[in-house]
Amino acid sequence: MEQSTGITRDQAPADPAATDDMLATQPIGYWSGLAHTVVTRYLRDEMAKIDVTQPQYWVLNRVNGGRTAPTREEVVTQLTPLADGEHEIARVIDQLLHRGWLGTDAGQHLHLTDPGEAARVRVRELVAELRAVVHEGIGDEEYVAALKVLRRMVANVTGDGPAA
What we know:
two-stranded antiparallel sheet, 6 helices
């Protein structure tokens, strides 16, 4: 591993107890994977307490967030890359239609019902509380720096060039 100092170091095995001076040799895959796993589990466990799933929240936000009401296919296409499988978002839309949180118009565009908007607002408030827990002790500058590093690593691997 090449350091900015020009010193080459071997990558150390993943070590949850690594000291600060050892962190530069730690594998990004381990730490990014661990962060994804524990944060996602935490969010989903907390959402389950109010009988909603993270993918349901994604769908409610996507249906609410556009200038025009999206179709089922548009929502599925946009959110499937985030999902735990190619059919999950379509199932979530069916769940939300059944629950009465989504409705469709004559053109088969999805829209939030009054109960769906109330649920979206309730989950948004919960997510804001959970974000505060996850971000405790981390300033905005630090958070932005971490995301820029991750974004650059993704660009380095995908060949999309330098990430701004």
